[in-house]
Amino acid sequence: MMLLMMISSIHLISQKTFHFNKHMAKPNGYVLQRGFSPIDGKPFVVIMTMKSNNRKTGKMLQVWILNESVNPVEAIATGADYTICGDCPHRKQSDGSRSCYVNVGQAPNSIWKAYKRGSYGNLSDLDLAEIKGKRIRWGAYGDPSIIDRYLVKALNKRAAGHTGYTHQWKQPWAQWCKNVFQASCDSFEDYLNASAHGWKTFAVIPKGSEAYSGKLCPATADNSQATCATCKLCDGAKTDIFVEAHGTGAKYV
Known about the structure:
alpha/beta, ten-stranded mixed beta sheet, 7 helices, globular, disordered N terminus
């Protein structure tokens, strides 16, 4: 009952209202929140999709944080992804390079378009039984620190586990994420700083370089059968993890 009260009390801010027809088949995703980013004050939307074919993460519920007004491809081209990514160094740089592993022209763009069509249910449509026993991946794209903290904590209590990472760990408004998400680090200095302030860290290092923190992500180890869903280490509270850069932007790390 307390969990239901917590979720129902979350204030969702939106300039638009999307109505999902409850007589239709159960949606494959839900709009968890619409709000204004603490990064730049511009609108964002949080969408949870219920099925995933991602072999690395396994069968986790995927949470996407998107610019509400601009599709992800255009957002990267214009810099509007700052709303949801902040000062993440893996964003597109002035020389055109981008080291982020997420191909926004695929899932993020499809999800944004589906959202604009009104294809997803609202938070009030979500049956909490759909969360129970499953693990949540906060930030399949976008920084989860901008999501309402009470929403995150309420759903995490219902789920079997979660993962999450934030580059905003230095920001005062993101301190609630400590022990909830890993601090994303891109240098030994970052690692020392985050550790000194009580964060568990997640570091991305150039492929083949020497690691400076924690243990290698089990889901990326050679011949490993582990997935993020089975590993459960990146919950902000257990240990420091590192991963070698991967994806199309790995050469820029």
